[in-house]
Design goal:
The complex is a heterodimer of chains A (514) and B (164).
Chain A: H1 8-30, H2 33-50, H3 57-68, H4 73-97, H5 110-118, H6 122-155, H7 160-171, H8 173-176, H9 182-196, E1 199-200, E2 207-208, H10 222-240, H11 259-281, H12 287-301, H13 313-329, H14 331-337, H15 343-354, H16 361-366, H17 368-400, H18 404-421, H19 426-444, H20 450-472, H21 484-513
Antiparallel strand pairs in A: 1-2
Chain B: H1 2-30, H2 46-72, H3 86-109, H4 111-124, H5 131-152
The chains are: A mainly alpha (514), B mainly alpha (164).
């Protein structure tokens, strides 16, 4: 025993005791009214925001981030998680009621949701969307809890070279969020990387492109950049658009999903949840593909496949379980490795940093209680999503009908106050306004903003780990492929780039043949 | 297609110009490099320079792709162009101008009054307006935030005309 050897049973008993202790600490941190109110408020507001076409989880989380600044970190993070989940479900409301998905992830729900609404079964469709969303969300949360700790314990072996190769792979997420043009996505990404270099150098503490501005020494402030890039351009571009003729909001109609219908859809929901979990855990994939894959699998397996697209309730179950199954799973790479799985988790990574927490393996060492508190809060969010969803079904029609001349000035008010309150500085509002114009120009030039944000958040980690690794090796780049973990991530990076280039070439060929 | 090609060429050229600006002026002037750096990659300007060169390469690639498409286009593609709606472009420009004009008004008017005014201006820009609802919201929303942050959380707001 003196050598430190322990029997497997003793080791697993110690591990079990540690988990139990962390659970107790986590429970004591999360079990209070403020946290429950934050989760419930988050899912409720998220559902409302998700139900408004043009807005979505990214804007909801970006606008709420400054408000969490004054909260306890757990409360703040849980509020953002609630918003994320609520907005993902909320997208289905307008998909069903006005044939317009509130979020891209709900695009698949339109296929059967709107035909049901036209038959006078909007309430039933909304309820099935809610049941499928809550079950999938719960399954996804369980996957998050079971897999995150395991991956994080493996990642504890990482040094700067391993983290650098992991960051290389993470940056390739940019390729999958680039939309139609890979090159424009990369341009957006390099602008984000460049902006992230402003501030004091981490090794020599010399100023980099601050030009004596004390406000910029700590780097470009995340929240104004985020709000400017995501929320403001959406509002500005509304003024440049032709007013759309809005579809008539369908009546809620029949609301009850029978037990037989729910049981019939249950295998589809479970399958969709698992598809969502697998796709969500892979960085850069997203909820929309998960919904479509789940839908096509359900259609393939269903006895009622001919009714899909004509108002089949199983179609709604498949689409909604697919897109909500992603929510918890996207947080697996975030919490275990510090790698965001999509734009919303990139914003959440920023939120963790704002609260002085660095997601990744060390978070489990230094703040295990916080992690377990977040786990428990996330589990509770599935139940609270159900309650908030039930409330919102009643209010669905007026939400979907909010006029843009009322909505968009209100969003601008949240933007400016949100950007101001973090540091109490008008300088931050200037940054937000400049980023708003940059974001609007990017929208007009069809340059996606998501790669910019991902690169902006990951940029400092990328550079820091690269330079740390090279400082360890005294400048010898061979350290960057020093072992199997580095090889694994470099291989994934190369594979990811090859796939992205292949996909881009296919798109160009398809575009030319069209 | 022709509009897309022109847009890509312009975006590529702007990107390349921004990269050249970084390489030639912004990085050399804006980054102080310590006298004794053991190797190039340890220098504070290594990563920004790398990113700037990458930006230049991507900008040139985008401009080149756009220009090639522009040269190959068929004459009939001119007909595809959708006429620009200048009125809406002007409205977007006014919205941007309003946001920038709002910034110097924060100190003299105060955050609450300036934000309410900004909301009213933006609401008035819509063709179909709900100005009464907009005005009520312009009063209530900034004030509610003021109560929450100033009185609730102790954030210092510029009070402006309400400061006296």
């Amino acid at each position: 025993m003196a050598s430190g050897w322990r029997s497997p049973s003793a080791s697993s008993a110690a591990e079990g005791a540690r988990v139990l202790e962390n659970l107790t600490v986590g429970f004591s941190q999360v079990a209070n009214l403020a946290n429950l109110a934050a989760i419930f408020g988050g899912v409720l507001v998220g559902t409302v925001v998700g139900a408004i076409p043009g807005l979505g989880a990214a804007i909801a989380v970006a606008l709420a981030l400054p408000f969490t600044f004054y909260m306890n970190p757990i409360t703040g993070i849980l509020l953002l998680v609630g918003l994320y989940k609520g907005a993902t479900y909320g997208g289905s409301i307008t998909a069903i009621l006005i044939n317009t998905p509130g979020t891209p992830a709900a695009a698949c729900t339109v296929l059967d949701g709107y035909p049901m609404a036209r038959r006078g079964e909007a309430g039933k469709a909304l309820n099935m969307a809610l049941y499928a969303s809550c079950i999938a969300d719960f399954v996804s949360n369980l996957a998050l809890i079971f897999f995150t700790g395991w991956i994080a314990s493996f990642a504890l072996r990482f040094g700067p070279p391993e983290f650098f190769t992991l960051m290389c792979f993470s940056v390739t997420i940019i390729a999958s969020v680039s939309g139609a043009s890979l090159i424009k996505g990369l341009i957006s990404g390099v602008f984000g990387l460049m902006l992230a270099t402003i501030g004091l150098d981490f090794a020599y503490t010399t100023e980099r492109m601050t030009f004596g501005s004390t406000e910029m020494m700590a780097g470009m402030p995340l929240i104004p950049v985020l709000i400017g890039l995501f929320a403001l351009p959406e509002v500005i571009s509304e003024f440049a658009k032709r007013p759309m003729v809005q579809e008539r909001v369908a009546d809620i109609g029949r609301s009850i999903v029978t037990r037989a219908e729910l049981l019939r859809c249950l295998p589809t929901i479970v399958r969709g949840s698992l598809i969502g979990v697998i796709i969500g855990a892979i960085p850069g994939t997203g909820a929309a593909p998960a919904a479509f894959i789940s839908y096509s699998e359900a259609k393939r397996a269903s006895k009622n496949r001919d009714n899909f697209g004509k108002g089949e309730i199983e179609g709604i179950a498949a689409a909604e379980s697919g897109n909500n199954g992603v929510c918890g799973a996207t947080m697996i790479p975030l919490l275990s490795l510090g790698v965001p799985g999509d734009v919303v988790t990139a914003i959440m990574l920023g939120a963790f940093m704002v609260h002085g927490l660095q997601p990744g393996p060390l978070l489990f060492e230094s703040n295990a209680g916080t992690v377990y508190a977040i786990y428990l809060g996330i589990l509770a969010s599935s139940i609270l999503l159900f309650v908030a969803g039930k409330l919102c079904i009643r209010l669905a029609a007026p939400i979907a009908d909010i006029h843009p001349s009322v909505l968009h000035p209100a969003i601008v008010a949240f933007c400016v106050i949100g950007a101001f309150v973090v540091n109490g500085a008008v300088f931050d509002l200037l940054i937000m306004s400049i980023m708003g114009v940059v974001g609007f120009a990017m929208l007009r030039l069809e340059i996606p903003p998501a790669p910019f944000l991902i690169a902006f958040v990951l940029g400092p980690l990328f550079e820091e780990n690269l330079r740390r690794a090279l400082l360890i090796s005294k400048g010898d780049p061979a350290i960057l492929w020093r072992g199997p973990i580095c090889w694994f991530f470099l291989a994934l990076t190369v594979l990811s780039i090859v796939l992205a280039v292949y996909r881009a070439r296919q798109d160009i060929r398809r575009h030319l043949s069209d | 297609m022709a509009t897309g090609a022109i847009r890509d060429t312009a975006a590529g050229l702007v990107t390349a110009a921004a990269a050249i600006f970084c390489i030639v002026w912004l990085i050399p002037v804006g980054i102080k490099v310590p006298p004794r750096v053991p190797f190039a990659a340890a220098s504070p300007d290594f990563f920004p320079r790398f990113v700037a060169w990458l930006t230049l390469a991507l900008g040139v690639a985008l401009a080149w792709g756009g220009a090639r498409r522009l040269l190959r286009r068929r004459p009939s593609e001119h007909a595809d162009r959708v006429p620009a709606d200048h009125r809406r472009t002007i409205r977007a420009a006014i919205a941007i101008a309003a946001i920038f004009l709002y910034l110097p008004l924060i100190e003299p008017l105060g955050l609450v009054a300036a934000t309410g005014l900004l909301m009213l201006v933006l609401a008035a820009l819509y063709e179909e307006r709900r100005l009464v609802v907009g005005a009520v919201l312009a009063l209530l929303l900034p004030y509610a935030n003021f109560l929450l942050f100033y009185h609730g959380l102790g954030v210092a707001f510029p009070l402006g005309i309400f400061g006296g």
